[in-house]
Amino acid sequence: MIVLELVLSFVAGIALAAIEHLLRARFGFAPDCAAVALALLLTGAARPSTGVYALGLLLGFSTSSLDPLGAWLLGGGIAAAVLLPLRDLVFVESPGTQLLFGLLCSGALLAARTLYALFSGAPLLPFPPSELVAPLLAAVAVPILHASMARALREWRRVRERWEARPEGGEAPPED
Amino acid sequence: MDDRDGELRVQRWSALLLVVGMLGLLPYPPIRGAFELAEESLLTARRWLSRGVGSGAPLGDAAALGRPDPRVVELLSRARAALLPPRSAGWQRDGDFGVVPVGRERRPDVLSLVVAGSVPAGEPAFAGRVLIGTTVVDPRTQRPFVRPLLAKGTRLPACAGVPGRREVRFIAVGDGTETMRVAYPDSAQPIREGDLVWALDGPGAPGGALAPGDAAGAVVPFVGGAELGRIARGALPAGSLRDDWRVRPSVDLDELAEVAIRFPPGLPGPGDLDLAPLVVHPTGAAVHDGRRRGAWLGVGRELGVVPGCVVASGPCLEGVVVRAGWRGALVRRVDDPGFRCRALVLVDGRCFPWTLEVEHSEGERLLLHGAPALPGAEGALVVTADAATGSPEGLLLGVLESEEGRWRLHVEPELLEAPRADSEWVVHRPPGPWSDEE
Questions:
Q1: Which of A8, A105, A138, B215 could lock onto A31 through a cystine, CB 3.0 to 4.6 A?
Q2: Are A66 and B336 an interchain contact pair (Cβ–Cβ within 8 Å)?
Q3: pTM of the prediction?
């Protein structure tokens, strides 16, 4: 089961990186999708498989990047180490908290890349003001996606309940 | 209890990621190797999952594409012509002289070499007619370097004066200073300041590294006749009754860009690498983070493409392969921040080795980290240096420009454009079983 979850999240990481690239090529800017995915995991329900999903996503993203694999893992580790204990102190269902988690995840990934650049003696990546767009978009995307997913889940449950409550042998009740 | 276990497991993965991520910062080769293996396996997995992207099949004839510009080749060969010792001197014996760039370490006891392959030990190193020292291979690191004649303990039979008219034989002794000591001079003739000094072949080669002549007993000059320098007066205390003669080398180690070393038959010289070019279409520029500049290739280790292989577009360098998996490779392009490669700077008919490092791109100009340590580099042409990992010599990088103390590389604008589906790039692969496939 763990292997399946890892493979699925790895593929999701590759797909999200491709979507980010397409958005950037189309509009000139895009949210930091890795940070969005990580923040969604960290603000969602705490499950034992969260770590496997996070690992798979980071591995998937690393294949689309020139940054070393270690920088991705370290970024994910920093984000999780800071934000998981924070869950006990804040209300993660709040849009403000989710926004903050998105921003911090993006910052953690950036910090890890910077650390790797410093250790390898490479020059630091330039960070012009336009580069703030990606973390800000990531921060905004997290509460929006949470709200959308919660609503989709609610709708799905409602449809399922209505389906299960349909008369025996009869057709499904029409949806209103 | 189960809830608590689950909670602990949730918290534990963050620590695991942190530890693994921090391990990647350690400079130990086994750890670096493990990370590289993981990265390349992931690249292969990615390629396997997206098999439809790019055929990866090699295209057409590679001979016409990706070759250095003939004008650059001409410039390089002209720069080397002055450096290679004359064939008539007989120092060539068997084998061939190869030109090897000199590294940063330039002390009287060590002259480092920037060479990826192996260099024979005990061979004399020349700069034209001037003898610099002998090659040595560090027994611990296996890195070759030149031990200059100035190194402490070096002894070499030499002669000063005017060849054929006034010759004073002596032993030139290196004592670790900027000049060599004149020991045991033949007192039949006087030594004069400014006299030319040349080497003689003695019973042992310079430094005792190699016996002169070959094993078959053929009499060939080893270093005999090579120029060493000029006689200079040493600094003796005032009132001294005798002269202290020294030999000042003809070539200053700090000004030396390259040296010529004899490579025996069977050992390829730095310029003799027979790289295997492969023409491919880049399969896209999909790299996460908009500030990075990279590209994908649909070929990988199955065709001999390995990290370090240089990718060219026409006579210009496009980038270097940084990761290679099965049927997929990731290329770091020239304008990617932090791009680094060994280069040659062509100034006034000489070529100087330099490790070029890009900070970031400013349109057609790439802001460089550091500065070339040579005078008059403004407007100099920068080309690639050869490497056994798959880099031919002479691919164009750009022209150096200096502004407000910062150095920039002016590159061809087409070089910085995103790769198109019909772009034809050439990957230069190190020699291997795949060399004859095309």
A1: A138
A2: yes
A3: 0.76
SS3 of B267, please? coil
**CB A74 to CB B340 under 8 A?**
no
Q: Does position A115 have pLDDT exceeding 60, yes or no?
A: yes
ipTM at complex level = 0.85
Candidates A26, A73, A106, A110, partner chain B, best to mutate (most B CBs within 10 A): A73
Instruction: State how far the alpha carbon of B295 is from the alpha carbons of A51, A158, B298, in Å.
Output: 30, 47, 10
Check CB contact of B421 with chain A, cutoff 8 Å.
no
Q: Helix (H, G, I), strand (E, B), or coil: what is residue A121?
A: coil
pLDDT digits (tens, 9 = 90+) for B338-379: 898 888 888 877 778 888 889 888 888 888 888 777 777 888
Closest CA relative to residue A75, chosen from B278, B29, B18, B252: B18
Q: First and final CA of chain B: distance in angstroms?
A: 65
Short-list B264, B260, B265, CA closest to B98: B260
Contact B43, B283 (CB under 8 A): no
pLDDT at position A136 = 93
Which tokens sit at B336? 């990617």
Query: A32: closest CA among A70, A10, A52, A58?
Result: A58
- Residue B138 has what pLDDT? 87
Q: Give A-chain residues touching B14 at CB under 8 angstroms.
A: 51, 76-77, 80-81, 84
